[in-house]
User: Fold these one by one.
Assistant:
Number 1:
Amino acid sequence: MTVDFSKMTKKDVGKLFDYASLAKDLTEEQVRKGCREAIKYNCKAFCFSSSYWTKVVKEELEGTDLLVGAGVGFPLGQQSSAVKAFEAEEAVKMGATVLDNCMNVGNMKEKKYDQIKQEFKDYVNAAGGVLTKMIIECCMLTDEEIKIACELCVETGIDYVKSSTGHYAGPTLEQTVLMRDCLKGTNTKLKVSGVKAPKPQNAYAYLMAGAELIGTQDAPMIIDSLDLMRDVGIVPEYKG
């Protein structure tokens, strides 16, 4: 479903963004600061790369409607299904309310569809009812592989197909439209990550193309740019 910016205030727009902190040298002080920024900008979630920061993030987001977003198999996705399931279960026990898992791209390249499908099922079961996302790293996939990945996510009940980890190239606009069309009429939504510069223009273009959520380390900057994007005609004016 395409976002209708004409009916969205800046606070509303915040819910179109997951604020991510994925640096290798991330500190607790940075995590806590990021959580406070995510609350200020009314983001959908604060996301991080594993279960490690879950308790800290849960503490900071307590009493808000923001989701606690832990990564699983991040960023390569080459762990065994059992290891990914353990990561998911651990994160949920610690307080995660949404999970971002990484598909094994090599398995997709080798057409090991049954293995991928079983891993997706194991992941959904391990999540125990919390929101699930699957990162397919579409910059490494052909259009046909993107379509198959989307279909497998739908079939196994994953809540979001996510384009990218952000560690590699993000999706093209064409790939975003392809994913949107593959997911149309299903219960699986589309999240885009890996937004490249100029980030404000690209992020809003992805949303207008059919993404329902953007994951980015620059969420505050992109949300702050909303008025400028409206002024230059990239995003429709607010009409209430």
Note: The chain has eleven helices and eight strands.
Number 2:
Amino acid sequence: MTSPTEFRPLSLCVLTVSDSRTAANDASGDYLCNALADDGHRLHARALLPDDKYQLRAQVSAWIADDAVDGIMVTGGTGFTGRDSTPEALLPLLDKQMPGFGELFRALSFEEIGTSTMQSRAFAGLANGSFVFALPGSTSACRTAWEKILRAQLDARTKPCNLVNLRPRLLESPYTDVRAADQGRASKE
């Protein structure tokens, strides 16, 4: 078994959501792919899709159904314009939301861009045992999220706790411990 103080590489996906970017000019997607690789993680898959909630939902659904995927980073579509649809597309897929991620991201962004951070609908959560992080489309926002939040939380060596060490327990049933306790009591009776 791996010691909790050893680095454990994760298998991560990167999805860029944009109506105007191409593979040739996807600076935010490039940044995330390079950052995760530089920090020892594996890029499982990468995609670039238009701001269409059904295409986004289909792609992320396929990734969260894949047991080999530990996490998904989505960049773009988190603003307020009519075409920004990442939250509407992906929030219904989450089993649990991680409100602290969006709150922390906006607090850190406030230091960089002031009150403009209130326009970000960045969020994170858990879907079928995979982490999902939805970030704004700017490269600087992706850098803030990676360098100030994700790098540490996706590293098993981060103390006092991190997301990596939760991985073995993410799919456990809320009734598992109750049943085990009931069985233990029954065997003593």
Note: The beta strands are 11-17, 42-49, 71-75, 96-97, 123-127, 130-135.
Number 3:
Amino acid sequence: MTTDKTTCAVRHDSGLGKECVDCRIRGAPWPAQCHPGSMCPFARRTMGVHRFFRGNPSFGTRCATPEWPDRVRRAAVARAHPYYASELLHDPDRHVRRQAVKRAPLGQILPLREDACALVRVAVARRLFGSDLIIMMDDPDLTVRRIVASRVTTHMLPLMLGDNDPHVRRVLARRIDASWLTVLAEDPTADVRAIVAGRLQWAVSAMCSD
């Protein structure tokens, strides 16, 4: 079998496999580089799918639409133009939504703060700041709350003092305004108390030096 590496044109006299005969990429008017199995949007191995979109980034936008299979959209969305990412925020596949969150405008990802998938909410939390994160302070996922605690403004941190995750309270102990440290001074987690003690000692030392 012979393959034209620059135009994705697998010659008709070469005994094509079914996946090549039915491939919509081959029928597209835009040139693409591909190779059956190892650099193909329909490759059995995920690596081959991603390799295709790395080599043909312009196909990211064209193949990140609902009519393409899930595994194709998952690889394509990472290369899709940010303008189209907003349309993919409502994709039924959670992995596509997660990738779309990373590229869509901030104002358009706000509804996904309450997405059913924790992975999507984690991606949202990593992009937002300040008051946009308030409704995620009580998220059921620990990872989401840990990210929120590190990204909200310090004056909002007291709202998370009742969190039951020690990691969240460690972040609070490091970031919260000193006037709230006494609330954490009797925390059940030893290293949270240690962080508080260290900050209080530093504050006392600073006052004495003045």
Note: Residues 1-15 have pLDDT under 50 and may be disordered.
